[in-house]
């Protein structure tokens, strides 16, 4: 069962998401929060698999709440998905850097919401939609003269190749097909990269790839 915490200051939004998610046999909404501070407290109490986090909330906003959850070692297995009204938002890139695993636009279709929860719960980043990659490219492109992180020196050539493909939004299966590997081998490479670089998930790999100039923002049309 995938346990979900909803954090949004609009009661109707939470009710709508709850109705959609609770209708699935493998998903349960375990708590709701109307603000970022409550979201952090409820995350510690319930240890959900996924937090759907609104950006603009009173007192503690979604960005700060995401940062607090990502920084709490007790919540290492909790994944945050940012909810936004806009497809491009300064806050979203900041949230990804703070530890979020991806983002959803609030008017997303119900089937996409359900899929997103399942994707993030199994440890993948919600980075496949082109709008997400475009957002990362746009804001990473503002970094002046990015320099490779010294931590990248720990990677093998094959691991660098895999990390570049992760940054392009490819899934493990797609990476396996591109590099003529088994899906299990691709997954192992990704896991080892995350361990070596000490990052939470694939979203953080993407951020590091852009900000270390492993991949440049201009690759998208």
Automatic annotation (TrEMBL):
PANTHER family: TRANSCRIPTIONAL REGULATORY PROTEIN NARL-RELATED (PTHR43214:SF24), TWO-COMPONENT RESPONSE REGULATOR (PTHR43214). One of its GO terms (biological process) is phosphorelay signal transduction system. InterPro entries: CheY-like_superfamily (IPR011006), NreC/VraR/RcsB-like_REC (IPR058245), Sig_transdc_resp-reg_C-effctor (IPR016032), Sig_transdc_resp-reg_receiver (IPR001789), Tscrpt_reg_LuxR_C (IPR000792), WalR-like (IPR039420). Residues 148-213 form the HTH luxR-type domain. CDD domains: LuxR_C_like (cd06170), REC_NarL-like (cd17535). The lineage of its organism: Bacteria, Bacillati, Actinomycetota, Actinomycetes, Pseudonocardiales. This is DNA-binding response regulator, NarL/FixJ family, contains REC and HTH domains. Residues 3-121 form the Response regulatory domain. Keywords: DNA-binding, Phosphoprotein, Transcription, Transcription regulation. The modification 4-aspartylphosphate is found at residue 54. Pfam families: GerE, Response_reg. GO terms for molecular function: DNA binding.
């Amino acid at each position: 069962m995938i346990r979900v915490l909803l954090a949004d200051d609009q009661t109707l939004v939470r009710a709508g998401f709850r109705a959609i998610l609770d209708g699935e046999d493998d998903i349960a909404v375990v708590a709701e929060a109307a603000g970022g501070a409550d979201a952090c407290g409820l995350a510690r109490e319930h240890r959900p698999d996924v937090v759907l986090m609104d950006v603009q909330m009173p007192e503690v906003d979604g960005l700060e709440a995401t940062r607090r959850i990502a920084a709490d070692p007790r919540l290492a297995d909790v994944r945050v998905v940012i909810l936004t009204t806009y497809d491009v938002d300064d806050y979203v890139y900041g949230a990804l850097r703070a530890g979020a695993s991806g983002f959803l636009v609030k008017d997303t279709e119900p089937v996409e919401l359900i899929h997103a929860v399942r994707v993030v719960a199994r440890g993948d980043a919600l980075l496949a939609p082109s709008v997400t990659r475009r957002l990362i490219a746009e804001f990473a492109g503002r970094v002046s003269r990015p320099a490779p992180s010294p931590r990248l020196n720990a990677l093998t050539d094959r691991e660098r190749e895999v990390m570049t493909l992760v940054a392009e939004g490819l899934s493990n299966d797609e990476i396996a097909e591109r590099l003529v590997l088994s899906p299990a081998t691709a997954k192992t490479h990704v896991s080892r990269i995350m361990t070596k670089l000490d990052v939470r998930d694939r979203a953080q790999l993407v951020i590091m790839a852009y900000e270390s100039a492993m991949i440049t923002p201009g690759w998208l049309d």
